[in-house]
Write a structure and sequence with these properties.
Blueprint (H helix, E strand, L loop, with lengths): L17 E4 L2 E4 L4 H19 L4 H8 L3 H13 L3 E6 L8 E6 L5 E7 L3 E7 L5 E9 L4 H19 L3 E8 L2 E3 L4 E4 L11 H9 L3 E5 H12 L8 E6 L3 E7 L2 E2 L30 H5 L1 H12 L5 H9 L3 H25 L3 E6 H5 L2 H13 L2 H4 L3 E4 L4 H17 L7 E3 L1
Parallel strand pairs: 5-8, 8-11, 12-15, 15-16
Antiparallel strand pairs: 1-2, 1-17, 3-4, 5-6, 6-7, 9-10, 12-13, 13-14
Helix pairs in contact: 1-3, 2-3, 4-5, 6-14, 8-10, 9-10, 10-12
Bound molecules: zinc ion.
Family: Belongs to the ROK (NagC/XylR) family.
Protein name: N-acetylglucosamine repressor
Pfam families: ROK
């Protein structure tokens, strides 16, 4: 068997070959089972990238033998990650057997825990949602949240006759994804320090993985959103808080402990307004939904929501226009710093306000251009997101299942 990471002239991989990646070199004994898993992962990734394929097409794309592909496909069908189907043919002849990501044989479920509502939906392993989305108001206690999600899942599985391989849960909070624990949830305090992954897994009896909403959306945007197949981009989530997901070289950047992307708590007004985090003058105090609503409420002498802000801005209200422009200027300050740091190909913006007022994206771009370094700004496209945290939770659990199968070694080279 030829190992997929070798050139055709290279000798077969044997125990003791050195792996070199990211400047580090180590000696490793590669076991046959690991080789099989790596091949399975390659086949899975190829079908995810190219869509439904025949075994011969996969063989050609990843450069291993037909027998190796056939063995990997058989194992992936057994694991219910792939399924075989007959491609309808025109005219005579036997229909071609094609392989696709499982859609009919097995599914995943995504759960998005947002500040005011929880959304639950099923999807195929291709990440496309199927059936209805169930929505309920975010419960006011942790026990009720776990119970409500568990009940919604149970109803969905029964009504759609699902065969669920895993459940992805995105949370609007700082999440210790390795430990499966919500670390700090400033806007849903009862979630802080809770082992949500373990508790949900015990309640529903299915593999479960929790993820921060901005991290989840980075994955769905790259899989089938506005940053499809792009290796370097930023996901800016403007909501009650401000969060950022960072994709570097095709990999999500977590940071050492998983808390990367805290753009909202960058100080932009030293000694300014008190933030939810307990510090003063954070970007969130002047550029988030709550910051904007608070400032506009103060100016108008009545409480306004973000929906009111969008309506007032669209109707040309001068006070709303002034506050929104001021918000965009502050936001541009934070975004330009991120553009300087990461040199992204795109900044993908997910925001209810920006969706309701499309011209705000142009206003943000204009303000960033005024303060960003030209070399960093040029070539960086600003676009609205095409997916949601719910899509992100689905994309996350699909990635989690693939990672459980075998690690992705696309950035590792093997040397003699
Ligand atoms: Zn803060």
């Amino acid at each position: 068997m030829r190992f997929p990471f070798q050139s055709s002239s290279a000798p077969p991989l044997v125990a003791g070959r050195r792996f070199q990646g990211n400047g580090m070199t180590q000696t490793s004994i590669v076991q046959p089972r690991l080789l099989s898993q790596l091949n399975e992962r390659l086949v899975l990734d190829a079908i995810q990238s190219y869509g439904p394929s025949t075994r011969a097409e996969v063989t050609e794309r990843i450069g291993v033998t037909f027998a190796t592909v056939a063995k990997a496909v058989a194992s992936l069908i057994d694991a219910r990650l792939l399924e075989e189907y007959d491609e309808p043919t025109v005219g005579r002849g036997r229909p071609a057997k094609r392989i696709r990501l499982a859609v009919d044989q097995s599914q995943v479920v995504g759960v998005a825990i947002e500040i005011d509502e929880v959304l639950v939906a099923a999807a195929g392993l291709d990440g496309k949602r199927r059936g209805a989305t169930s929505t309920f108001k975010t419960p006011s206690s942790y026990q009720q949240l776990v119970r409500s999600i568990s009940e919604a899942l149970s109803d969905l599985i029964k009504s759609e006759r699902l065969n669920v391989l895993g459940v992805g849960v995105s949370v609007a909070a700082q999440v210790d994804e390795k430990a499966g624990r919500v670390a700090v949830a400033a806007n849903l305090p009862y979630l802080s320090d809770k082992p949500l992954e373990r508790d949900l897994r015990e309640a529903i009896g299915i593999t479960c993985s929790i993820v921060r909403d901005t991290h989840a959306m980075c994955v769905s945007e790259r899989l089938h959103g506005s940053a499809k197949n792009l290796d370097n981009f930023l996901l800016l989530h403007l909501g009650v808080g401000i969060g950022m997901g960072v994709m570097i070289d095709g990999r999500l950047f977590f940071g050492q402990y998983g808390y990367s992307g805290e753009l909202g708590h960058m100080t932009v007004v030293p000694g300014g307004q008190l933030c939810h985090c307990g510090r003063k003058g954070c970007l969130e105090t002047v550029a988030s939904e709550w910051g904007l609503s608070d400032h506009l409420s103060e100016q108008l002498g009545r409480q306004v929501t973000v929906e009111d802000v969008a309506r007032l801005y669209a109707s040309g209200d001068p006070v709303a226009k002034k506050e929104v422009r001021r918000t965009c200027k502050h936001l541009a300050l934070g975004v330009s710093h991120a553009v300087h740091l990461f040199n992204p190909g795109k900044v993908v913006v997910y925001s209810r306000l920006f969706s309701a007022c499309p011209e705000l994206l142009e206003l943000l771009v204009h303000n960033v251009e005024r303060i960003a370094l030209p070399l960093n700004f040029r070539g960086c496209e600003f676009v609205n997101a095409a997916t949601t945290p719910l899509d992100g939770s689905i994309a996350h659990i699909i990635g989690h299942l693939a990672d459980a199968l075998a690690p992705r070694l696309s950035h590792t080279t093997i040397v003699n």
